[in-house]
Automatic annotation (TrEMBL):
Protein name per Swiss-Prot or TrEMBL: 8-amino-7-oxononanoate synthase
PROSITE patterns, per the entry: AA_TRANSFER_CLASS_2
Segments passing through the bilayer: none
Annotated EC: 2.3.1.47
Top-tier EC class: transferase
Disordered: annotated span: 1-64
GO-annotated molecular function: 8-amino-7-oxononanoate synthase activity; pyridoxal phosphate binding; transaminase activity
Catalytic activity of the protein: 6-carboxyhexanoyl-[ACP] + L-alanine + H(+) = (8S)-8-amino-7-oxononanoate + holo-[ACP] + CO2
Entry keyword set: Aminotransferase, Pyridoxal phosphate, Transferase
Keyword Transferase tagged: yes
Cofactors (names): pyridoxal 5'-phosphate
Keyword Transferase: yes
Coiled-coil segments on the chain, per record: none
Length: 487
């Protein structure tokens, strides 16, 4: 190879100048649109329908320089993708503000301890309100030991999807207990709460169907409706009359309709009016799904969730969904429902059971032990509510704005303005307390807040000191000019 040919090859392989050889931009075959606007490259027959999107084995020929070039034109690269660009810009602005002000950036705070009421970070100890470890189970010795036992017996990974991996008894044991708690036919555990909502709704609904959602519903449900290709209509948060009027106007335009609610709303600390809303859904021949992510382990005398709280029958809701990652102190999701529905989803629902690995054995071992502790020590739930009442009362006494929250263990403290909320969070961090600031798009502009998760393990002294420090810091922040964080 001559020197100039070698240079050119090097350039092409490194991506520099690969887009232009001799002044012309080569068009890779894979990017030629077909009549339908899709890439014209045919899918290899061996992978069609298998769920794989890439080649199954080694490539048969060396990729062309054009196919591996890394520099693409404006609008074709990810660096100028609006969400990528806005996020990068915003994170840089936050880092710059932290650097200028000398305050620590509370985002992605490096932590070296369990996520308990006191955490170790920044070479110091912080009183922590940012963990939804409601019952202090994630580092409970029985939970940790059960995770270790499962790890020793079954290894670190399920290493395949359940349908072909062989079932380990831990899955079935947890599923039977969850089905019993919800008084329904069966249950299924999964690797992720987010994917459970997305995958279950993605599997059950399709074009011609509708999901009718509380306006504060979690993003994972929204993802599910996008996955499903169904319509999504919101009704006013927790408002039975709004649900009724949406159903009156729209129910007849769709085939299947699923009303989706939460037991305990994670940004606002409101309690889902699940019993009333489910009854209205039934009047209009709709199915009902309830997300118990923040209500399982929190509501009901035994922590069995919103069903126990309202004394509902299991069958009043079609799909009880929950997570293992919050009060149970582990990781993953679950649904509890009719046995046939669960059997179908276990065998066929992509992302929750099919085409995805089974949950790691240690996570299921931990969740089972978490459930054991919950059953053995219902006083944890009582302590949780005692602490929630104490903290809410302390905030009220100090005149702080807790929005629409209802005195539950999720306590939003409204600090309007992204900069102000960030300043309060960073100042608290400086003074030994960790509570996350939340801004748009997670909450509406002007309703920025700090969110406090109260647990059964906080002490009264921690709660009262936090309320004092918070009132003082919010007082300081009131004098700050409101600037928008770029992005
Ligand atoms: C209401 C709600 N549903 C689902 C999820 C997703 O659960 P996971 O974190 O277990 O994936 C969350 C997560 O915070 C949530 O708040």
């Amino acid at each position: 190879m001559s020197e100039s040919a070698r240079d050119l090859a090097r350039k092409l392989l490194s991506g520099n100048g690969g887009g232009s050889v001799g002044g012309r931009t080569p068009t890779p075959a894979a990017s030629v649109p077909s009549a339908g606007g899709q890439p014209s490259t045919p899918r290899p027959a061996s992978t069609a329908g298998s769920g794989h999107t890439g080649a199954a084995g080694p490539r048969s020929s060396t990729p062309t320089a054009a196919a591996i070039r890394t520099v693409r034109g404006p609008g074709r690269q990810f660096a100028d993708h609006p969400d990528v660009a806005a996020t990068v810009q915003k994170q840089a602005a936050i880092a710059a503000i932290s650097a200028q002000s000398g305050l620590v950036n509370p985002l992605f705070l490096p932590r070296t301890s369990p996520n308990d009421t006191v955490i170790r970070a920044l070479d110091t100890e912080l009183v922590n309100f940012s963990a939804y470890n409601y019952l202090g189970l994630s580092s409970h010795p029985r939970v940790v030991q059960a995770a270790k036992d499962a790890l020793d017996q079954y290894g670190a990974s399920a290493s395949a999807s359940r349908i072909v991996a062989g079932e380990i008894p831990l899955y079935g044991e947890l599923e039977q207990r969850l089905a019993g708690i919800y008084d329904v036919g069966d249950a299924m555990v999964t690797t992720s709460g987010y994917l459970t909502n997305a995958g279950v709704i993605g599997f059950l609904l399709r074009e011609g169907d509708v999901a009718i959602c509380d306006s504060l519903i979690h993003g994972s449900v929204v993802s599910g409706t996008q996955w499903a290709g169904c319509r999504r209509i919101n009704f006013r948060h927790n408002d039975p009359e709004s649900l009724r009027s949406v159903l009156r106007m729209s129910r007849n335009g769709f085939d299947r309709a699923l009303v989706v609610l939460e037991g305990h709303y994670s940004m606002d600390g409101t309690v889902g009016r699940v019993d009333e809303l489910a009854a209205i859904a039934r009047e209009f021949d709709c199915a009902v799904m309830v997300d118990e992510a923040h209500s399982f382990g929190v509501f009901g005398d035994h922590g069995h969730g919103i069903r126990e709280h309202y004394g509902m029958a299991g069958a009043e809701v079609d799909i009880w969904m929950g997570t293992l990652s919050k009060a149970l102190g582990s990781c993953g999701g679950f649904i509890a429902a009719d046995a046939d529905l669960i059997a179908a989803m276990k065998a066929s629902a992509p992302g929750v059971a099919m085409l995805t690995g089974g949950p790691a054995p240690s996570t299921i071992g931990a969740a089972l032990a978490g459930l054991d502790v919950l059953e053995a020590e219902p006083e944890r739930v009582r302590r949780l509510w005692h602490n929630a009442r104490l903290f809410n009362a302390a905030l009220h006494e100090r005149g702080l704005n807790v929005g629409e929250s209802q005195g539950t263990p999720i306590v939003p403290v409204i600090v309007p303005g992204e900069i102000r909320a960030g300043f309060v969070s960073a100042t608290l961090l400086q003074r030994g307390m960790y509570a996350g600031a939340i801004s748009a798009p997670a909450v509406p502009v002007g309703k920025e807040r700090l969110r406090f998760f109260i647990t059964s393990e906080h002490t009264e002294q921690q709660l009262i000191s936090a309320a004092d420090l918070l009132a003082e810091t919010i007082g300081l922040a009131e004098n700050l000019p409101e600037l928008a964080v770029a992005g």
